[in-house]
Design brief:
The chain is mainly alpha-helical. 40% of the residues lie in helices and 6% in strands. The chain is extended and about 60 Å long.
Length: 135
């Protein structure tokens, strides 16, 4: 293959071949300065918030996979992800949280000490009753 990008196409697919050479560079990197997060209020050591964000991302990804028909059931999805189906069910509950709570999670504006387990134990599916979680 030459050094120039090559493009091939058929009725449904366009394939672009781009020559690429990766070099592995060893060594340490020294970063001087203050850590800045993408969202204000998230500290580098705030593991509980990162756990909530990760779970929320998984929940919406799994919901999209189920709705698209990629998987026909939660059990099939759990088997493909190699995790327990009860965990998938619990995490999927996060998609039922109110937009106000989702926004608070994304803005790192949850009350200090709020844990993922507390969000998963939401008593009501009514958004007005869920508001107590962020107060």
């Amino acid at each position: 293959m030459s050094g120039e990008p090559q493009i091939t196409a058929d009725a449904h697919t366009v394939t672009v071949y781009v020559p690429l050479r990766l070099r592995k560079c060893g060594g340490r990197r020294l970063v001087i300065g203050e850590f800045r997060s993408a969202a204000p209020g998230i500290s580098q050591r705030d593991g509980s918030h990162r756990t909530i964000l990760k779970a929320l991302g998984r929940a919406y990804r799994w919901k999209r996979m189920l709705e698209s028909g990629e998987f026909s059931s939660i059990t099939d999805l759990a088997a493909a992800e190699k995790i327990n189906h009860s965990y998938v069910r619990r995490i999927l509950r996060l998609t039922l949280l109110s937009p106000e709570i989702i926004e608070a999670i994304l803005d790192a504006d949850l009350p200090k000490g709020r844990q993922l387990e507390q969000l998963l134990k939401t008593v009501s599916h009514l958004w007005t009753e869920q508001a107590a979680l962020i107060r």
